[in-house]
Amino acid sequence: MLRLVVLAMVVVVVVGLSPPYRPKPAPGCSYYCIKPEGPNKGASYCCSPPHVPLLPEQKHPGRCPPPLKECTRGFIPKICPHDGHCPYGQKCCFDTCLDLHTCKPAY
After folding, report:
1. What burial letters (b/e) apply to 9-30, b meaning 16+ CB within 10 Å?
2. pTM of the shown model
């Protein structure tokens, strides 16, 4: 019985230490991002629309705005893998409502 308990504890520790789920490369996906928050925190996902050109990674000045307290609808945001895919003055930020990275005005 003690062996069974020890074996169960080892399995729990090993499963808890496994890396977050990494999807298989998707055809047409140029960039993968990590979800920094939300129920799938730490999971990677394809964060570029199909056939987005590879651009050098850029960092625009400013920082991402705080997450919205309520989700709104009405406009379609630009999906992005990094700031270089956003207009100057905007940042590529994780959108908690959409559960993906989008261009937002720098804060």
Report:
1. eeeeeeeeeeeeeeeeeeeebb
2. 0.67
